[in-house]
Amino acid sequence: MRRPKLTHIFPFLAGIVLVALVMAGSRSETARAAPDAIPVNAPAVQMDNSDCLVCHNRPKFTTSLPNDEKLVLTIDEDKFNKSVHGENQIACTDCHADFTSFPHDDLKANSLREIATTYYTTCQQCHAEQYNKVLDSVHQRALAGGNTNAAVCSDCHNPHEQTRITNKDSGEILITARLHIPQTCASCHSTIYDAYKNSVHGNALTEENNTDVPTCIDCHGVHNIQDPTTVTFRNSTPFLCAKCHTDSTIMDKYGISTNVLNSYVADFHGTTVKLFEEEFPGQPTNKPVCTDCHGVHNISKVDNIEAGIALRENLLIKCQRCHPGATANFPAAWMSHYEPSPEHYPIVYYVNLFYKFFIPTVLGGMTFFVITDIYRRIVNRVKGVRHS
Fold first, then answer.
1. Is residue 348 part of a domain?
2. Domain end: 225, 247, 267, which one?
3. What pLDDT digit, counting tens, does each position of 265-291 carry?
4. H or E segment at 62?
5. How far is residue 196's CA from residue 362's CA, in Å, rounded to a whole number?
6. In this structure, what are the phi and psi dihedrals at residue 117, rounded to the nearest 5 degrees?
7. DSSP-derived 3-state class of residue 58
8. Fewer CB within 10 Å, N- or C-terminus of the chain?
9. Domain for residue 9, yes or no?
């Protein structure tokens, strides 16, 4: 049998190579003609909020964490769009930078609290001023000390539903936001909230929607909340209360005297506290401040039968905390915050009135005597008469 010549095989092999090259070129053209085709190992494309909400807008969408807690993954699209973040078109991936593609990587957190304490640091990207104030707060110090239950940003501000808090132009807190401040704090401080809502301040806010009364942040601050158990905080309480109680635009509405600070500072208790605050701000004093007599979160009206200190029986109980031997007449020695008048403490009023005339008369008479004596001495010297 005759063997084929090599010259016949070369054209055959060349034809196969040519066909392969044509097919490869065809596949290359197809790939270029289909730009939406994503290779398996292509880099992730930045996701839009609508991409996230395809899954996260589903109701009852949850996942289980290693500690068996349920993480709710449902985001209400309507509430998010109405939130301050939605209004400013903040992207999901601006905060969730670790989830930029689908499918997501496994969640590394073991509990709901770990998620909160991990993500709150992202707030500083847009809210640096507020974030830096928080770093000096009692909450942050507790967190740094290992208390993971201390409040972080998302405990007070739901990032997916938080509406605008302040007026864009004036920066003042909106009335709707102000009304809900105590309920926000109540998520951690429920016992204190129960005392506050039954107080004269809390009842006016929660039942009457009266925003003239103080809420938590008026006394404790907003982001830079300090420890209220410190000596400095206690000594500065009279001046803290005075922010409202010396404001005539508020007090005149309710017929409340704005002289409370002056009357307090003028008596023995207030004078001592003021001196300590100015000279030794870190030193404790056992003299009473506003909260010792009126209460802290449970402040009642002064004429309240059960706790109001306008009633001598209730005031005596307060006095006996510092003066255990005080008797029923002891509170009568204190004029409260009243200015002496014919109606209130008339004896003190008339004694003061007497001295208003008596002292000028005595001093005026003495001054007149001295002046006339000097005049007579000068006249006598001019006339050459020796004064005996």
1. yes
2. 225
3. 888 888 888 888 788 877 888 889 999
4. strand 62-64
5. 54
6. -75, -15
7. coil
8. N
9. no
Q: What is the DSSP letter of 110?
A: S
Domain identity same for 49 and 159:
yes
Question: CB under 8 Å to 98, separation ≥6 — which residues?
Answer: 105
Q: CA-to-CA distance for 122 and 365, rounded, in angstroms?
A: 77
pTM above 0.85, yes or no: no
Instruction: Write down which residue in 225, 248, 267 finishes a domain.
Output: 225
Structure-block tokens of residue 75:
């985001």
Task: Assess whether 115 and 220 both reside in one domain.
Answer: no
pLDDT digits (tens, 9 = 90+) for 230-274: 988 998 899 999 999 999 999 999 999 999 999 998 888 888 888
Question: Would you say 225 and 137 are in contact if contact means Cβ atoms under 8 Å apart?
Answer: yes
Domain total of the chain: 4
Asked, for residue 12, whether it belongs to a domain, the answer is no
DSSP 194-252: HHHHTSHHHHHHHHH--TTS--HHHHH-SSS---TTSHHHHHTHHHHHHHHHT-HHHHG
Q: What is the amino acid identity at position 210?
A: N
Give the helix/strand (H/E) hosting 52.
helix 49-56
d(CA 48, CA 366): 91
What is the per-residue pLDDT across 105-138, written as a single tens digit (0 to 9) for each?
A: 888 889 999 999 999 999 999 999 999 999 999 9
Domain span at 189: 164-225
Indicate whether 156 belongs to any domain.
yes
Is residue 94 within 8 Å of 49, Cβ to Cβ? no
CA distance 243 to 260: 11
CA distance 119 to 216: 25
